Amino acid sequence: MIKVFAYNSNICYDGQNLKKNSDTINLALEEIKKVNFSENDINYVKKIGAKPPFKNGKEAYDFIKKSNIKVKFAPMPSNDTHAQWDIDENTIKINEIYKNNKNKAVILAISEAIIHEAGHAKDNDGESSIQEELNCLSLNAMAHRDYNRKYPDIYNSNTQESIVKNGVTLYSEAYFETNPYKLIKKVQKSYSHLPTGDVLHPASYLAYTIKYNHF
Ligand SMILES: [Zn+2]
User: By Cβ atoms counted within 10 A, which residue in 19, 27, 144, 162 is the most buried?
Assistant: First the structure.
């Protein structure tokens, strides 16, 4: 999603100046560096039709740094819009309702949102498609599983924040269910208005199913 909103200029991290900050966003960025996608997960998401833009969290983190992408909190249209990539500002924006939130599950969820948006930033075209979303969603879904392995029970701690409860947890579940029905329904709900694919993200069978088969 690419939109420019008025926001306060509370920059929590910028690519030049990582050391100065020690807040929620920096903690999330530190987690990204350590994310590993399991080989099984990578093979699985590829098999169902996604093409993950990064091999692991380190690659996403290095891309963010190399490209001088800023990550900061900003207002969003609703509590269920967790993050946005703003190409005009070269900035990944995170919903400001999580500002200074130190709940570990929220920090991890923010890091998943950052990985997702970095996937959008990689093609540098400011456009999206169902296939591009599938590719980027596979990143947060796989990162979520890595966190579940590393921090058992972290997402079971009655976290009520929407980015955890209605965001990253549901996408990871939908991605890795044996039956892709849940994933199709979920992606349809948010992204079926987008084109099926684009030049840089040729549509898979899954993307076509999401676009044209409404169950
Ligand atoms: Zn997206």
Answer: 144
